[in-house]
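user: At home tonight, take the chain set out below, taking as long as you need, and be ready to discuss the fold:
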Amino acid sequence: MEQKLKQDIQIGETIRSLRMERKLTQDQVVSKLQLMDLDITRSIYSQIEGGTYSIRISVLSGLSRIFQVDYNTFFRDVHLPASE
């Protein structure tokens, strides 16, 4: 069973920033993830960046390799939900 990280904190913005810093398109990132045998479509990847899709840990691992960053980088400047 694959585990997902529920995006109750917004890491999609950070993922988008990392992709744009490296001048990669969403299609290029998806292709690299697919070469790692990760089952992902461009539509799903777009939703991850938009914060509307819970990212699988395996995809987060693949992104850390593509962007050459450690996991902590994804959680920098996160916007935590307001406490009730």
Notes: Helices lie at 12-21, 26-35, 42-50, 57-67. DSSP finds four helices and two strands in the chain. The chain has a mean pLDDT of 86. The longest strand covers residues 4-5.
